[in-house]
Amino acid sequence: MSSPDSTRHKRFTFDDYSLEEVPITERYGLYNLFLTLSASFGAIAVLFAGGVLGGGLNFVGATIAVLTGGTTVLAIIGALSGAIGAYSGLSTYVGWRFPFGRAGGKILGFALITITTGIGWFAVESWFFGVVMNEIFPHNPFFSVWAAALWGGALMILSTYIGYRALSFLSYFILPQHVWLVAVGLLLAISIHGGWGAVLTAVPKSHMTLTEAITDTVGLYIAGSLIAPPDITRFARRARDAVTAWVLHMYVFYPFLILGAVAIVLLTGSVIITEDMLKLGMGVGVLLIIVLGQWIINTVNLYSGSLSFTNAVPIRRDYSSVIIGIVGTLLAAYWGGYTQVPR
Description:
Blueprint: H1 4-11, H2 30-41, H3 44-56, H4 59-88, H5 92-95, H6 97-136, H7 145-162, H8 164-192, H9 196-201, H10 210-227, H11 229-233, H12 239-268, H13 273-279, H14 283-312, H15 317-337
Helix pairs in contact: 2-8, 2-12, 3-10, 3-12, 4-10, 4-12, 6-7, 6-14, 6-15, 7-14, 7-15, 8-12, 8-14, 12-13, 14-15
């Protein structure tokens, strides 16, 4: 049994109980879980996915694809995964020790998460952050692709180092900001382009089948729904809070984001949602969505990667986040040095 002094010490470090059950005294309620899950998974990728749907389906078809297909499948998978995290209080990768053994859990977690999500996808998202920032500020060296990837990656490493407390804190700002900006963009598009009736009668520029649309919406979230929820829901006081938070996210916030983007794209014409929002005069809004949205989702990528790395290698989680974060950021900056953004 740990002494009171050791327990007090852990509360003021950033290891986040990476290899053990999160104590009940360190857990949070439904409201915090909903905000953190929704902000963490409400990435700019969801808005871009809405742009793709709006380019190939009318609004009614996109709504059917999102609500009856993608949302339902992902709600079930994520709820089950999140419940496991809340019941056990363990990260995904420590939990994998039960079905795969200690060595198997370490190897599987390192291969699937540390390398792919923690380093690879973290690098891709950091690079993408640099690309979009360069599109908005094309003539400023500070916003060149490689430079923006560097300082953007550094921001994400800092919040990942702090851990769940940083994710929770950021979500209180990022979730309302996303809701407000998408709502403003939607209202602007509707007011400029003929009202809500124009959304329902708008014809997409290309064709996408309903099956393809459902596949796309499921594929957008499927890996995250299987793997990432326990890393967050292990901080839930009760399993039902974790399940309720995830289901609310999938049936309230996720549809609002993706279908809001569908409507904006159908009205304005471009399948790239950031271009549409810039056309509507939302330059600052686009910047906020990119900076804050990419910041928190890539923090989640690196957070999961750091938990996986700590499960495989005997090192504290906060230290591991710096190690693999630096590797991913340098990769992003390297790719950024060779990236030419079309003008």
